[in-house]
Amino acid sequence: LFPPGHSDTLASLSNQFSSSLGLGSTASLPPTSSSAFSLPGVLGPLVTGPGSPNRMYGTSTSVSGTQSPFSGLLPPHPAPPPPRPSVAPPSLSTNPIEQVRTGNLAGIFPEVTGPVSREVEDEANTYFQRIYNHPPQQISIDEVLELLKKFQTSGVQREQDVFNCMIKNLFEEYKFFPQYPDKELHITAQLFGGIIEHNLVTMVKLGLALRFVLEALRKSTDSNMFHFGVAALDRFKGRLKEYPQYCQHVTLIQHFKEFPTHLIQWVEYGTQSSDPPSKPSAPVLPPSLLGPTSAPGQPIGQPIGQPV
Fold first, then answer.
1. Tell me: the pLDDT tens digits for 72-125?
2. Rounded to 5 degrees, what are φ and ψ at 199?
């Protein structure tokens, strides 16, 4: 991923965009209750970029006048709070976080220029559909990641276009993740963590993906986005040793000790650029997807404070 000698990958990245992503120092970290994605009009009209997951789920409108990525597929969710007042025009922002908020990703994805062909759009949509389908049509996250790895290094332009289209629209979709049903959000978290795990994003895109996971982990432990963050973090836990500075930021989260026990170990060892000796693992499921024997308030997949 980076040239030899870079013991702290995230620190290397920070030379280029730490100020824009807010990872430069602990003083720059917003409080736990804040959100980097409290956007003006966050729940407004869905992204219409091609190859995006929400393209599959109809265009019905809720009582709040907003659209859900799964509208028409599942019962509507309660109306969200009203959007905040408008801020500066998106074209004036060079901050990657702001560019994602406003859907202006040209600076982050310069390789995606001009309109995407219908063929590329349809192929990208097909893969997203199969991720959320039921067997036997369903394609596993591991299969999708292997496909993306193949397309990333392909000499066929169409396959590279499909790769860029899917990655770009996965980033665009982030602001709609809080609307996803728990099962689909958990699947998406594994995909999001998987693109970090398999080096499918680098440099600014990697820093942005890591920041998205960090912001999700800062959410309250009973929120769906916290569970998204945990599932994504679990997916790329084997690479945490490459990001000791990032791990330091994770340990500063107010409720860090409420994370699943095995992830606490991975993050704490990651601050020292190493893996935990036993390389522990455990299920990471949101409470709604756990069995009926799970205790109320249990975080994800295992009791808090219990050894793996």
1. 334 444 444 455 544 444 444 456 556 565 555 656 666 666 677 889 988 998
2. 60, 35
Cα–Cα separations (whole angstroms), residue 161 to 1, 118, 119, 150, 188: 21, 11, 10, 12, 21
Q: Residues 101, 226, 7, CA angle at the centre, nearest 5°?
A: 80
- The Cα–Cα gap between 201 and 220 comes to 27
Total length of the chain: 308
Buried/exposed code over 55-79 (b: 16+ C-beta within 10 A; e: otherwise)? bbbeeeebebebbbbbbeeeeebee
DSSP string, 174-239: GGGGGGS-HHHHHHHHHHHHHHHHTT-S-HHHHHHHHHHHHHHHTS-TTSHHHHHHHHHHHHTGGG
Q: Give the whole-angstrom CA distance, residue 84 versus residue 86.
A: 6
Contact 221, 238 (CB under 8 A): no
How far is it, in rounded angstroms, from Cα 71 to Cα 74? Answer: 6
Q: Is the dihedral of CA 213, 219, 222, 224 positive or negative?
A: negative
| Preceding peptide of 136 cis, ω within 30° | yes
pLDDT for residue 295 is more than 60:
no
Q: Any idea what DSSP says for residue 137?
A: T
Say which amino acid occupies 73.
L
What six digits make up the tokens of 136?
């036997």
**Block residue for tokens 């995230």:** 10
Q: Is the dihedral of CA 124, 73, 192, 64 positive or negative?
A: positive
Q: DSSP letter for 74, please.
A: B
Q: Decide if pLDDT at 272 tops 60.
A: yes
Both tokens assigned to 112:
């995606």
Q: Which H or E run contains 157?
A: helix 157-173
Q: How far is CA 75 from CA 11, 69, 129, 145, 228, in A?
A: 44, 12, 19, 30, 21
Helices 182-197 & 141-152 angle (0-180, nearest 10): 40
The whole-number pLDDT of residue 20 equals 44
What mean pLDDT comes out for the span 201-226? 94
